[in-house]
Amino acid sequence: MAKATKSKQLTFYKANRVGLLAEVSTALAAAGVNMTGLCAYQMNKRAYFMVMTDNNAKAKRALKKIKTTAKEEPVIVVEMTNKVGEMEKIAAKLAEAGIDIKYTYGTAGSTRSTFCVFKTDKDAKAIKVINK
Q: Each residue of 4-16: pLDDT tens digit?
C-alpha cells in the first residue's frame, strides 16, 4: 500500500556547464547537507535542479555561497512497494480524481520500497486520494 506525505524540495537553475553537478554537490556536502532526492536536467543552456535534502535552510545557505538562489516548493513524497504496477495504481487514482501531475521523479529505495516525488495541481487532495 502506498503512503503519501507532504514535503518540500529546493528548486533552482544555473547556466549549464561541465562540472556544475559536482559544484552543487560539493557545496552541499561541505555544509553537511545530505541530498535525499535529486532531479537535474539541462534545457536551453540552463541546468535545472529539484533537490530534496535533510536540511533545506542549511542547503539554501550553502547554495548562496556558489551564487545560487534556491526556492522551497511543496511536493508529495510517495513510498510504495517496489513491484510491477504500483505506479499505475497511483497514476490511475490521481487521474480518476481529476488531479494533474505536473512532474514526478523517483528511484527504488530498496528491494522492498520505491520513493517518488510528485508535484500536482492539487497536492493536498492528491495525498488524501493516495492514502485512501
A: 999 999 999 999 9
